[in-house]
């Protein structure tokens, strides 16, 4: 059975223009906002009295242009070393708040 509806696909009247989309892309790639996610860009713009589009519109445009990678500035991860294991053979030899790496000296 074929679709016999006669209505056409309607576009929302408040759809972003190409100029607005380009302005979003330029903003999220700028040096001032390039490291921030849309959830932080939009409020910062509003603090400066600038309205481009809603946060969800920012995310939609960013997704369409593959700009949704991690945008925060982060320090490189420092390698974590496993702490030296402690072994308690008798009572009251080792006190620690974290027993993750403690070896209990259980004698059989």
Describe this structure in words.
- With 108 residues, the protein is mainly α.
- The protein has three helices and two strands.
- A two-stranded parallel ribbon has the order 1-2.
- The radius of gyration is 28 Å and the shape is elongated.
Keywords:
single chain; 108 residues; mainly alpha; two-stranded parallel sheet; 3 helices; elongated
Distance between the termini: 79 Å
Low-confidence stretches: none
What structural class do the secondary elements suggest? mainly alpha
- Overall, the morphology is elongated
Instruction: State the helix count.
Output: 3
Fraction of residues in H or I helices: 25-40%
**Biggest beta-sheet profile:** 2 strands, parallel
Order of helices and strands: HHHEE
Please indicate the percent range of residues in DSSP E strands (runs of 2 or more): 5-15%
Rg result: 28 Å
Provide the spatial order of strands within the biggest beta sheet: 1-2
The chain-level mean pLDDT equals 83
Number of strands: 2
Layout: helices, strands, pairs:
Blueprint: H1 18-28, H2 38-47, H3 55-64, E1 86-88, E2 102-104
Parallel strand pairs: 1-2
Quick overview of this protein structure:
The chain has helices spanning 18-28, 38-47, 55-64; strands at residues 86-88, 102-104. It has 108 residues and is mainly α.
């Amino acid at each position: 059975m074929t679709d016999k509806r006669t209505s056409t696909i309607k576009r929302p009247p408040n759809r972003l223009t190409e100029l607005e989309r380009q302005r979003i892309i330029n903003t999220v790639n700028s040096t001032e906002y390039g490291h921030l996610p849309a959830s932080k860009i939009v409020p910062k713009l509003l603090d400066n009295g600038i309205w481009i589009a809603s946060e969800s519109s920012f995310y939609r445009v960013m997704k369409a242009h593959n700009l949704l990678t991690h945008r925060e500035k982060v320090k490189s991860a420092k390698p974590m070393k496993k702490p030296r294991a402690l072994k308690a053979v008798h009572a009251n030899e080792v006190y620690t708040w974290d027993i993750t790496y403690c070896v209990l000296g259980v004698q059989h």
